[in-house]
Fold this sequence. Notes:
The complex is a heterodimer.
Chain A (H helix, E strand, L loop, with lengths): L10 H31 L5 H11 L4 H25 L6 H39 L2 H7 L4 H39 L4 H11 L2 H28 L5 H30 L2
Helix pairs in contact in A: 1-6, 2-6, 3-4, 3-6, 4-6, 4-7, 4-8, 4-9, 6-8, 8-9
Chain B lengths: L10 E12 L2 E12 L3 E5 L6 H9 L6 E6 L2 E2 L5 H7 L3 E4 L11 H12 L4 H14 L15 H13 L5 E4 L8 H18 L2 E5 L3 H7 L2 E6 L2 E5 L1 H5 L4 H9 L5 H12 L2
Parallel strand pairs in B: 3-8, 3-9, 6-7, 7-8
Antiparallel strand pairs in B: 1-2, 1-4, 4-5, 9-10
Helix pairs in contact in B: 3-4, 3-5, 4-5
Amino acid sequence: MNQTDFSQMGPVQKLGHRSIMLAVHLGSVVLFFGQVLRALVMPRYRVRRFVNDCFDAGVLSLPIICLSGLTVGAVLGLQGYYNLARFGAEGSLGAVVGLSLVRELGPVLTALLFTGRAASATAAEIASMVTTEQLDGLRMMSIDPLDFVVSPKLLAMVAVIPLLNALFICFAIFGGYLVGVSYLGLDGGQYISSLEGAVDLENDISGSVLKSVVFGLLVATVATYRGYTSEPTAAGVSAATTSTVVIGSVCVLLSDYVITALWGV
Amino acid sequence: MDGHPGAGAEFRIVFDGVHLTRGRRSVFSGLSCGFVRGEITVVLGGSGAGKSTLLRLIGGLIRPDSGSVRIGRRDVARLSQREIFEQREMIGMLFQGGALLDSMTIFENVALPLLEHTDLAPQDVAEEVSRRLAAVGLPGTEELYPRQLSGGMARRAALARAIVTDPEILLCDEPFSGLDPVNVRRIESLLVELNQRLGLTMLVTSHHLESTLRMAGRIVFLTEGVAVYGTPREILASEEPEIVEFLAAEGRAPASELLGDERAEGAP
């Protein structure tokens, strides 16, 4: 499965081989995910490890999420204001900022930032545990690493990403407020009330949470799978980290389109 | 050097016709050998000869392509995943780098098997852990993290973790590599003491000839996918070209002389 000699293959053969390998990997990701789910449901529950992993994935991501949220909101405020002003509709800046954040930018940007910060770290951590035989060490103590290491991490990532998403949106709305109200001189009450009137719970907020959870599941599965199945070398660790970021980001963007097209959120 | 353990001894672990291929490379081609209950067997061989792989086969971390690896009457190669997990509770393994979990303290590392597999009360666990750490010469290191220990200390902490549940079989993967002579001696005497006091069946992979001759009851020499095994005396007297080459490279030309010295010193 690994040591394949590409140099002796023709282009057609290479394409075929790659396609087969893609199918094999997709299949094993699904199996992996099933095993992790089983480990999650079966007792022992690793509450302490889950809390620690929430700290690593969530709390340590706070600075980048808050700062990025503020900046994105400020840019939205500026762009929105100038474009709305052309139609004399700058009063609905709050609605534009709020809707675009809640429905699209919040979940997607949070997931992308999360992939770069937390998912890559998780993949690197698990991969280096493979390299230093820590996972084999656990197996030899009759402890399943899927249960002890992987499942708390996966659950923690899925749990924190909607929270980070909410925080990102709050900071971005505040960033938009700073630019729109404090800098460009819109009325603060109008900004808030147009936002409040446009964003509703049923469609917008729940859609945002749905997207966030789906992105979280995808990114967390990619990160843990790539770490868990990495080659036990330094190159293996770096390959796992890089491909987590690449595959994770692509998964987020593709699934974003699919969710938006199917459910219109 | 035939297939019999010798008078009064009994094989605890038996490899029978084990074939294993990794990638395109054949690691074992019909490996057959045995490991005697209650004895220290040292597995010798050049790098890439499959020493660690042999230990991993016993632990069920990998499965052979064909052939059997029997511990007592159970064939590890044919156990289900669940049975392998049960089987491992009687096996302790000391990994080359220690394999301590680096996100946990030494205490948490050593206590882990106890917390997972026994119903001991927390204060009993604490007591047991500090007793084990004292036994390997690391008292008071409970609150340190593995990265705060030197290589030799981490190896000893890992040894404490490997034996904390009183396994019957102890597998040691290169316990001496990368250590200074003092630490080599220390770990060696710990292993010998464990073997004498508790009667553990021990497998030690090594390419450290001197300590091998001091501690080994039997030697398994891996060469080209098969094993030559016997007592240290038989191995040293062997005519097998690989063994002769290995010994010559270690600079042990007058083998019989060395053996005479070591036996006299090592005998109780």
